[in-house]
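[job 4417] fold queue: 2 targets
>>> target A
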Amino acid sequence: MAASLTITRILSAFLILILGIVFGRIIGNILKRTLKNVEISALLKRELNLKVEIEGYLSNIVKYSIYFLTVITSLTQIGISSKVLILILMVFLVIVGIFILLAVKDWIPNILAWFYIIKTQKIKRGETIRIKGIEGQVSHIGLLETKIKTKTEETVFIPNNAFIREEVIKK
């Protein structure tokens, strides 16, 4: 009797796992298509000058969250204690937090520098400047980087935090 109950629990946990994987993949694909139709990446590129494929990131976050919840539900079905599941959740959240911090570690100084540049008007669009041995006209000040057109018509992208760390000479 106990063996058949264990087999039933294992089979139901396996079925939950398979359905969760299918459901996660379907929901992830639907979300990705929906966000592409809304053109959220084009909006971010146009408004904030961010070249990020946000559809893929958001759909993957949702898909893997569903996978994670499915694994937790399957483990609960087998009979693993909730304390172990909470520990697994905490480890998962710490890992996700570390990945997020590593992903945005370069963005934060550049965004703060952008606020500084805009507020103090250290440089302005159309000015001719020299920084890091590069001389040219400022053509765009973006959230993360600034475009400079050189005399040879080359476009150089300089991270905004360089305008705080480096000497800027206005011509």
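>>> target B
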Amino acid sequence: MVNMTLLVIAFFFMEFVAWWSHKYVMHGFLWNWHLDHHRKDHRQGLPLKTEDKHFEKNDLFFLVYALPAIVLMGIGFTLMYRPFIYISIGITLYGLTYFVIHDIIIHHRVKIPFLIKPHKGYIQALVKAHTAHHKPKNKSDFNNYGLLVFPHRFFKEQ
């Protein structure tokens, strides 16, 4: 039970890590990695539908953010310390969730028909919040740095 709790806590803690790193790292000192991710939408003329199959510098963040999970999993299996294993699984599941939502559902970088169809409810609000970050209509739109947690107003706009 404790290990599953650690997994769930690690998963949800990663949303805070993603928000913080998006705001202070990606839009901060590593903006040069993240910039092409924002430019691509405008260059293609497609709001958040990245048709280019090439990697972006922004994709390097997936490697950077996978390192803690890899290290924890390695240490956990080497020392047979289950808490590290479950924390690393939580981090990895968040990474998988982020990839599916961000790269498949929102940006259509991988074409999986049932995931790129029009959505309703929470997923539709999530896509609108991310779109607002990429093409802000006001200053508060650009300040939306989270993925799974975002301002409630995006539900109201449906």
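[job 4417] complete. Note on B: The helical segments are 2-29, 31-44, 60-79, 82-106, 113-116, 121-134, 139-142, 153-156.
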